[in-house]
TrEMBL record:
InterPro entries to which the protein is assigned, alphabetical: AAA+_ATPase (IPR003593), ABC_transporter-like_ATP-bd (IPR003439), ABC_transporter-like_CS (IPR017871), P-loop_NTPase (IPR027417)
Keyword line: ATP-binding, Nucleotide-binding, Transport
Domain ABC transporter: 5-241
Name of the protein: ATP-binding cassette domain-containing protein
Coiled-coil boundaries: none
Sequence segments annotated as region (Disordered): 262-286
A Pfam family that the UniProt record links to this protein: ABC_tran
The organism's taxonomic lineage, starting at the top: Bacteria, Bacillati, Actinomycetota, Actinomycetes, Kitasatosporales
Gene Ontology molecular-function annotations: ATP binding
Length: 328
């Protein structure tokens, strides 16, 4: 099963520029979480801080008891092996075939024999639908295939935590829908903890168990997907509605006068209707995260707003389940 990621009071600046401060959240073990936020709010900086590639000035990131901010470089390097990373462009080596790209972490970090490496690489290529493309160079395939190759490479060391930085960037809506399904299928197959950074509203609406949002140097919120999808927090509602009206402006923050004018212009548009979360493809096991999340949500049931509870009941009904006697 995936490992829980505990982030406590994280603050990161570059020189005088503060990126975000006092960010605290827990990525529940084996669940899929999405981090949203307008461009430039520091989502990539957050991912890099979680794996210890960037050093926040304050706070901790705990992975199985190891603090990825303050531990020794050796300990951080060792712990990084539980992560699989998928970068925006796939981050493949241009002169290597897809096979060699995907095999790279195995050759670099393990002493496995070539026959074993071939078995693992082919298994992962099959998971992401790339069988037959082993010999191709990254420059000879489409952007979507490069992303899937990046995902296959992220999977070869059997990660317990997977971080994906804008896996949808540059993909058309159909390929994005396939990718969303692939992420859910992966979670069903390997039960890893997953954090996906994205701007994509369809991924946000259909993939995660939990969502968070960074804005104005703060974590605005983090919680069950239904809490964000029904949120009346102006910045969350604006972002998830893909609207111009709201606190987010072209260069991140809108000035107060414009905001006041908008507020006087009438009630905000209604939120998008809730769509069901994706289920694993037929033939795959159920996601074990679903039952664990149900337990967690029940434990916080009485602190959730009524709109969130109604949305959770709706999600559960669509999935053919039920949140049990407590959740009425
Ligand atoms: N190594 C660095 N040195 C200095 N500033 C940096 C560094 N890395 C990132 N930044 C700054 O941190 C801010 C946040 O960048 P980041 O890439 O994390 O944003 P983002 O939310 O991922 O944006 P996008 O959605 O556009 O990819 C930006 O202003 C960026 O210029």
């Amino acid at each position: 099963m995936g490992i829980e990621v505990v982030v406590e009071g994280l603050t990161k600046s570059f020189g005088k520029q503060n990126i975000w401060q006092d960010v605290s959240l827990t990525l529940p073990a084996g669940e899929v979480s999405v981090m949203l936020g307008p461009s430039g709010t520091g989502k990539t900086v957050f991912l890099k801080s979680v794996i210890g590639l960037l050093k926040p000035e304050h706070g901790r990131v705990l992975i199985d008891g190891v603090d990825m901010v303050n531990s020794s470089e050796r300990e951080i390097y060792e712990t990084r092996k539980v992560f699989g990373l998928m970068f925006q462009d796939g981050a493949l080596f241009g002169s290597m075939s897809l096979f060699d790209n995907i095999a790279f972490p195995l050759r670099e970090h393990t002493r496995k024999k070539e026959t074993e490496i071939r078995r693992i690489v082919m298994e992962r290529m099959e998971m992401v639908g790339l069988v037959g493309a082993e010999g191709k160079l990254p420059g000879e395939i489409s952007g979507g295939m490069r992303k899937r190759a990046g995902l296959a490479r992220a999977l070869v060391l059997d990660p317990q935590i997977i971080l994906c930085d804008e896996p949808d960037s540059g993909l058309d809506p159909v390929r994005t829908a396939y990718l969303s399904q692939l992420l859910i299928d992966l979670n069903a197959q390997i039960d890893a903890t997953m954090l996906i950074v994205t701007h994509n509203l369809d991924i946000a609406a259909t993939v995660p168990d939990n969502m968070g949002m960074l804005f104005r140097r703060r974590l605005v919120t983090f919680g069950p997907r239904e809490a964000l999808l029904t949120s009346e927090e102006p910045v969350v509602a604006q972002f998830l509605g893909g609207r111009r009206e709201g606190p987010i402006g072209m260069s991140e923050e809108k000035d107060a006068a414009t905001l006041a004018r908008e507020l006087g212009a009438g009630p905000p548009p209604a939120p998008r209707p809730l769509v069901p979360q994706l289920e694993p493809s037929p033939g795959l096991p159920e996601r074990r995260a679903v039952a664990r999340r149900r337990e967690r949500v029940l434990a916080m049931w009485h602190q959730l707003p009524e709109a969130t509870r109604a949305a959770i009941r709706q999600s559960e009904a669509a999935a053919g389940g039920g949140v049990g006697g407590v959740a009425r």
